[in-house]
């Protein structure tokens, strides 16, 4: 890869941080990820999540995409989250 790269779990952590910003209390039920390009050490990435389907009253399917500084997709996937009320 031409140098050190970040482990894929670190990239999925950016998705987790984006999901944590959803209103309510989001809880991961499932995550699917395909790593499409390496993330190099020191590189800034951006996660974008979008609700694509409401599966039940409180469960939502999300599109999850992480891009690098050049706009290249480095992670493409989806997640199922349960969104409960804050205590």
Rg, alpha carbons:
14 Å
What class would the helix/strand composition place it in?
A: mainly beta
Q: Uncertain spans, ≥5 residues at pLDDT below 50?
A: none
| Average pLDDT reading | 94
Silhouette: elongated
* Helix/strand order, N-terminal first: HEEEE
Percent of sequence in beta strands: over 45%
Compute the number of helices: 1
What is the strand tally?
Answer: 4
Q: Percent of residues in helical segments?
A: 10-25%
Terminal Cα span:
45 Å
Strand order of the largest sheet: 1-4-3-2
What can be said about the biggest beta sheet?
A: 4 strands, antiparallel
Can you walk through the features of this model?
The protein is mainly beta and 87 residues long. Helix content is 15%, strand content 47%. It contains one helix and four strands; from the N terminus they run H-E-E-E-E. It has one helix at residues 8-20, and strands at residues 25-35, 46-54, 59-67, 73-84. The chain has a four-stranded antiparallel beta sheet with strand order 1-4-3-2. The model has no long low-confidence stretch (mean pLDDT 94).
């Amino acid at each position: 890869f031409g140098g050190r790269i970040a482990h894929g779990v670190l990239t999925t952590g950016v998705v987790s941080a984006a999901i944590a910003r959803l209103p309510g209390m989001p809880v991961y039920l499932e995550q699917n990820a395909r790593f499409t390009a390496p993330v190099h050490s020191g590189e800034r990435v951006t996660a974008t999540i979008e609700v694509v389907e409401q599966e039940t009253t409180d469960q939502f399917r999300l599109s999850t995409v992480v891009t690098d500084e050049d706009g290249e997709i480095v992670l493409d996937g989806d997640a199922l989250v349960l969104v409960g009320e804050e205590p």
